[in-house]
User: Which sequence fits this backbone?
């Protein structure tokens, strides 16, 4: 096995185990058609949230976008940011490399293997056939913007390895299509729909309308960054008589709906008594909200997903050791250890295979 194909076997074993039971992130996916590909300039996976240049004719750009479109984790995909020949070595954040083809994985060719390309090549495995052959889709600057073809295991152009990417983080549902929201900071980037469009800067208090889009609530990195991640919403804004469409980060938005008014506004009514000047303003101890820690939520973001499973794996491999506070949260089977059993349970929970750890 070459250095590029050599990965930590324990991570691959966990993810392959989960995928063998659960299948792909979105169930069985239809193979991409050329007609569907032609819509790419209107899809954020291939434009606003895609970190690669040469959009429309590039293998790394296409593989990143197609995997996002299929419902796989952008946080993991963002670990592979450079030439295709580097992807197997740089795959991280829950991604794993295997010799076994898996539907909706990334087919990887090291330098010099795919028609002699020194930059390597990547494609997306659309389907694994019964005879072991694979149907892959890709994009290439030397061929065409979209290609789909079958490769047999005995062919010389069989991929060097396959990169398995975990499912995406659950999408946000805080807003809904038709809802009006307002910006809560100044100079907020409104990232316009389309290819290489400049952002518009919105003033604080700007009202926009959330529009229906299959990408709503997606968890993706800030364009140009691999460290800042937000939930994103598709919105419309009228400027100088023209409606503009684009994407806004949820963190800087709030609902613009008017607050609900009480039916009773009479200060003398029994439902709205005057305050007692002698009463304490401190809430009673038994009325304080109970602060709870979600078992398995290692990174403390309020959800249990592949990011938590990745943190457990990094601790197991002594890449990033958890502190004492997070150790208890990571020990989801309560056996006093954080080991591969906990990582498997976290992955199963992330995929919806289990709803509780007990």
Assistant:
């Amino acid at each position: 096995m070459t250095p590029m194909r050599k990965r930590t076997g324990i991570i691959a074993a966990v993810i392959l185990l989960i995928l063998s039971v659960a299948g792909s992130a979105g169930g069985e996916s239809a193979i991409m058609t050329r007609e569907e590909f032609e819509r790419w300039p209107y899809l954020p996976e291939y434009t606003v949230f895609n970190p690669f240049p040469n959009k429309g004719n590039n293998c790394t750009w296409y593989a990143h976008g197609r995997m996002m479109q299929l419902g796989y984790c952008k946080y993991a995909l963002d670990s592979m940011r450079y030439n295709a020949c580097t992807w197997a070595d740089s795959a991280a954040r829950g991604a794993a490399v295997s010799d076994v083809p898996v539907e909706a994985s990334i087919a990887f060719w090291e330098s010099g293997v795919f028609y002699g390309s020194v930059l390597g090549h990547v494609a997306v495995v659309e389907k694994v056939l019964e005879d072991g052959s694979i149907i892959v889709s890709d994009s290439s600057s030397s061929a065409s913007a979209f290609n789909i073809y079958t490769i047999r295991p005995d062919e010389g152009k069989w991929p060097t390895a396959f990169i398995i990417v975990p499912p995406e983080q659950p999408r946000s549902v805080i807003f809904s299509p038709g809802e009006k929201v307002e910006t809560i900071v100044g100079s907020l980037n409104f990232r316009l729909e389309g290819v290489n469009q400049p952002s518009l800067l919105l003033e604080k208090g700007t009202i926009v309308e959330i529009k229906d889009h299959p990408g709503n609530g997606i968890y993706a990195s800030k364009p140009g960054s691999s460290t800042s991640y937000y939930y994103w919403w598709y919105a419309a804004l009228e400027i100088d008589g023209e409606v503009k469409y684009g994407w806004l980060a949820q963190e800087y938005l709030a609902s613009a709906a008017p607050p609900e008014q009480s039916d009773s506004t009479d200060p003398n009514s029994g439902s709205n008594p005057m305050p007692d000047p002698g009463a304490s303003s401190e809430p009673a101890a038994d009325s304080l909200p109970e602060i709870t820690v979600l078992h398995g939520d290692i990174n403390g973001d309020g959800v249990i997903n592949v990011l938590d499973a990745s943190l457990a794996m990094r601790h197991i491999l002594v890449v990033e050791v958890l502190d004492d506070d997070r150790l208890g949260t990571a020990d989801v089977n309560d056996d006093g250890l954080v080991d591969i059993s906990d990582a498997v349970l976290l992955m199963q929970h992330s995929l919806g295979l289990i709803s509780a750890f007990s």
Notes: Residues 221 and 227 are 7 Å apart (CA to CA).
